[in-house]
Input
Amino acid sequence: MGDDVLPASADGDIAGEDLTALQEDFQRDGYIRLGGVVDARACRELQEFLSGSLSPLVGPAEYEADVGYPGSPADRNAVGGQTPRRLLHAYARSEQLRHLAMHPVVARVLRCLLGDQDVMLSQCHHNCVMTKHPGFSSATLWHQDIRYWSFDEPELISVWFALGDENRKNGALRVIGGSQNLNLDRGRLDRDLFLRPELEVNRDLIHRAQIVELQATDVLFFHCRLFHAAGKNLSSKVKLSPVFTYHRGSNQPIPGTRSAQFPSIAVPLV
Ligand SMILES: O=C(O)CCC(=O)C(=O)O
Output
């Protein structure tokens, strides 16, 4: 099940039969969690580095006020209006983040899930560090990340790295397992392609959601068509989560779109 956390072995490797099980879970649920992938010390060092990028803010960044989600400040001049939501261009920010994006266990699992040796990291959206602040963070409504993307095929996988614990209190992700396989009528989504919660049929779907709690060093892989959402951070500590998105080399961004703005980078074979 996608809600089990499969630990990587002490040397960070994964047995072939485990990879097959992960692939089956991913096909069914649209997400999988892997436990203890990133070295704990690397998580602490990344948290330290990223905290230093918040104050003073090292751009480029997206602000909570820019997205206008429930709970976000009305504009950048409002109280809390300078709260960052994402540190953008994560891959370019440091050697440590580049190592994280190309983590050998992540690369191995991606090759299996995408069924291809030729795996690429997109430098367009996500490629960011989600920075969920106490006080001024917003809730993210139910959506599929494919709304951001323009690729030949809707087959991309995002990898979410937990540098600290992620739980209900600090706004962990919630997912609707299996929803990557649904084809919903356009009328079930609002103008911005969020699920319309006022529709009973959508309420039934949302009722199936599960929270994805993560511990520092865990990673979550999720399909770009998986419906997911997240709450505000009600803890007293900023939640920092690097997120990168990957695709097969043969699955190309549509020229001229935001997805083609920067070249993708090959994930090295290990
Ligand atoms: O609020 C969150 O942490 C979820 C963010 C998210 O799902 C997104 O930006 O696509």
Notes: The mean pLDDT is 93. The first helix runs from residue 16 to 29. The radius of gyration is 18 Å. Residues 130, 132, 140, 145, 171, 228, 230 surround 2-oxoglutaric acid (CB under 6 Å).
